[in-house]
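Bumping my old thread because nobody answered last time. Still need a sequence for this structure:
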């Protein structure tokens, strides 16, 4: 039966679906755990306190991501290139350089951020401790991200996704659920302390999973550090990752000027439900990224085109089906968090429709990244980041959370179309669903 199935759909399809399916299961499972946690917090603390927690958590993950200076995003490219070319000194040098940068920057951010939060917010009469604790947690999340990027680059997918994507939210959910069932009371600061503890546990597990393998493969290798080229590429990828992975958190920080904590909670829940679609894209991209990086290093354009078409088919079909599911069941799903969250239904549809468009253009970002065209991606995402804030400021005062959702969805669609255009003209690869439906059509040649 297995051989017949393989003959029918092809070994490449089975390999792609099996590998990306594991990553999707981890990411989707982690997202479900996060949504369950927010459901517990919404029922336990109320929408207002949930919004305050989400604001502090948004600051935490944005600052932690900035602490790596984009080197985490660059790891699959440079480590993948080192693997393809059997360049162990470059791999050893990158691993050490990335680790030192993350520790130094995150430690500095903790001191400055915690002190500023305590002094500025405390003087305003508000509770500064949620943000203080968030900044204290920054190094834990920053180092988690570094180790996760190393595991992903070496295709150690279990180590890359289980500790930080599944274990950490599971621990967090278990503790807050236990306290809720006991009928205890807790403020936002207590919830942030639980989050900090869960990050520490996940970090220890990740160190145990990744550390021995890194030591085995790199012990005795003399490192070669190319700080200038690595940092230049990484900073471009940092802007890209901020838009791609942390758009809701950035939007929350900007929207905090206009929205109440309850509206922030409604926006965040609707976005996180819609973001289940993006996990399909992330899963497929993450599974194939090391192989794509090696194919790009060898200038194997046929393999890049072949992967792109398979990935686009898979992500588009799944994302379109998810959109239909949200259209039919979205009000019910949002209502599980509380009756006030049903107001996010139209916001849910806007964000999920933008995700379908994102899937329809194919894996454009990984292709540009491994192809050495991250500067083109940088131009698109820098423009997108510049547009998000004024769009939110324009629409949020009148339409509230839905205005923020419309701004975010519009920028997502525009950036996806722009990236698709650059891939076609720079790499001669057309990963869009239109090309997939017309596989014999001509591909654009690179400029």
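Sorry it took so long. Here it is:
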């Amino acid at each position: 039966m297995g051989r017949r199935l393989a003959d029918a759909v092809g070994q490449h399809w089975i390999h792609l679906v099996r590998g990306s399916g594991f990553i999707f299961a981890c990411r989707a499972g982690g997202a479900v755990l996060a949504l369950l946690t927010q459901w517990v917090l919404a029922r336990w603390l109320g929408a207002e306190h949930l919004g305050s927690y989400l604001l502090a958590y948004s600051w935490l993950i944005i600052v932690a991501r900035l602490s790596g200076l984009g080197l985490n995003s660059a790891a699959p490219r440079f480590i993948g290139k080192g693997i393809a070319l059997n360049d162990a000194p470059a791999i050893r040098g990158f691993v050490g350089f990335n680790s030192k940068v993350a520790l130094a920057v995150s430690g500095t951010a903790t001191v400055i951020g915690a002190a500023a939060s305590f002094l500025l917010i405390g003087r305003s009469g508000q509770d500064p401790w949620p943000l203080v604790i968030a900044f204290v947690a920054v190094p834990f999340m920053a180092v988690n991200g570094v180790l996760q990027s190393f595991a992903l680059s070496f295709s150690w997918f279990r180590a890359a996704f289980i500790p930080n994507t599944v274990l950490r939210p599971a621990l967090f959910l278990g503790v807050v659920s236990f306290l809720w069932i006991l009928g205890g009371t807790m403020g936002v600061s207590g919830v942030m302390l639980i989050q900090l503890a869960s990050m520490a546990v996940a970090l220890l597990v990740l160190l145990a999973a990744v550390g021995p393998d890194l030591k085995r493969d790199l012990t005795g290798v003399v490192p070669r550090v190319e700080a200038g080229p690595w940092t230049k590429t990484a900073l471009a990828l940092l802007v890209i990752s901020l838009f791609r992975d942390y758009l809701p958190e950035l939007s929350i920080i900007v929207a905090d000027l206009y929205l109440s904590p309850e509206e922030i909670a409604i926006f965040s829940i609707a976005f996180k439900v819609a973001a289940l679609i993006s996990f399909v894209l992330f899963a497929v991209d993450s599974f194939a990224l090391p192989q794509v990086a090696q194919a790009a290093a060898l200038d194997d354009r046929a393999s890049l085109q072949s992967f792109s078409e398979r990935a686009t088919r898979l992500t588009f079909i799944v994302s379109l089906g998810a959109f239909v599911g949200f259209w039919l069941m979205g009000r019910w799903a949002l209502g599980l968090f509380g009756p006030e969250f049903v107001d996010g239904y139209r916001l849910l549809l806007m964000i999920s429709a933008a995700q379908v468009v994102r899937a329809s253009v194919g894996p454009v970002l990984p292709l540009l990244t491994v192809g050495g065209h991250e500067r083109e991606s940088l131009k698109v995402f820098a423009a997108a980041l510049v547009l998000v804030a004024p769009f939110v400021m324009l629409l949020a005062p009148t339409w509230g959370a839905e205005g923020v959702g419309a701004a975010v969805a519009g920028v997502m669609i525009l950036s996806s179309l722009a990236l698709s255009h650059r891939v076609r003209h720079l790499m001669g690869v057309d990963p869009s669903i239109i090309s997939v439906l017309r596989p014999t059509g001509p591909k654009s040649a690179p400029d």
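Residues 441-447 have pLDDT under 50 and may be disordered. Let me know if any region looks off to you.
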